[in-house]
Amino acid sequence: MNKKTKAHCNQCHGERNHEVLFTEKTSWSEERYGFQGEDKYEMLKCAGYDNVILRHTSWFSEDPEPSVHFYPPAMSRKEPTWLVDISGKSTRFAKSLLKEIYVGVQNGMKMIATMGVRSLMEYVMIDSVGNQGTFGKNLAEFASNGFISDKQRDILDAVLEAGHATTHRAYQPSDEDLATCIDIAENVLQTVYVHPGKAAELKRRVPKRR
Ligand SMILES: [Zn+2]
Q1: Residue 51 Cα, ligand 1 centroid: separation in angstroms?
Q2: 75 CA distance to ligand 1 centroid (A)?
Q3: How far is the CA of 43 from the centre of ligand 1 (A)?
Q4: What number is the average pLDDT over the span 84-105?
Q5: What pTM value is reported for the model?
Q6: Could you tell me where the DSSP H helices lie in 41-194?
Q7: Quick one: which of 136, 118, 121, 120 has its CA closest to 173?
Q8: Which of 104-113 are b and which e, b meaning 16 or more Cβ less than 10 Å from the residue's Cβ?
Q9: pLDDT tens digit sequence for 177-205
Q10: 15: CA distance to ligand 1 center in Å?
Q11: For residues 134, 138, 144 and 148, what is the CA-based torsion angle, rounded to 10 degrees?
Q12: Backbone phi and psi for residue 40, each to the nearest 5 degrees, phi listed first
């Protein structure tokens, strides 16, 4: 009988019991400075979904805590299902960038992800209303064309400011701040690229009033 352990499962979306299928350990040492370390690789199978992952735990004599990484990375945020509804040449970049943002989030790259959200929002605004020269003008034009309400404009302004602060003022966003930025970016993408097509489909399906 194999050993059991708890780990995050991307299929079950949470901590689940996993069976340890295989374990490999290696160690190293640096004699000149007296450093040493150990690596453990475990192949784990989820008891719920039979999903298989690799857990890499590494110890370094100068670090008090071991570091743990999963392959593929543990996903705290799922790609939204409507992403498949975004198609067309101009949206290809937006979609690719959003996917890279999710990869960044899954790998703890909060600063890169926050900068990515700002770039994504800039792209969507320019794609929708043309380049007005500055962020402020693009945002004003985007709002006056009805893509977002005044309230959403204030919120989007905060997202753009977070990206700017990361780039220029060494701002390190928290998990919560980044999650808020991505929530808003997803919202804007849906409004601009997904909802118009869905609304047209709906109009076709609903019988006309007599
Ligand atoms: Zn699972």
Answers
A1: 6
A2: 12
A3: 14
A4: 84
A5: 0.68
A6: 89-106, 110-129, 135-144, 150-169, 175-189
A7: 118
A8: bbbeebbbbb
A9: 888 889 888 988 988 888 888 888 888 88
A10: 8
A11: -130
A12: -125, 130
